[in-house]
Fold this protein.
Amino acid sequence: MRLIPNIQYSAAPTSGVSNMRPTQPIVDRLSRFYPDIPVANVDTPPKGIHYAINATPLGLRPGDPLSFDPMTLDHDTLVAEVIMSPVETALLQRARTHGRRIHHGRHMLDHQVPLYLEWFGIDNKGIDIVRLVRTIP
């Protein structure tokens, strides 16, 4: 498996002001902690990746640019989001419209809540966590 971080962050994409964080230190850190997994910062995703995940805030507001263009990915690449609202961001809409498989951001929270409860020592046995999380507006 290859890890290809696209770790660009725009603080104010709708204002035209770009505040891009340098990505090389993040790539270096990932490489240090995971030396057996190739890590690279790329402008265009390489062929053969299985998952493309938007882990940026791009998509929270209408008019945000896409964090990457899903049309540059192989047809069988799954496009995923960490953003929960809106449910289907422009990135996911574009990917779905062009036949890519998608994964909504809400699923991330579904599986983080049990870890939070465990961390804080809260017994969650007998609780349908996914149903509980889905009641959160």
Q: What stands out?
A: Confidence is low (pLDDT under 50) at residues 1-20. Helices lie at 24-33, 90-97, 106-119, 129-134. The CA atoms of residues 113 and 119 lie 10 Å apart.
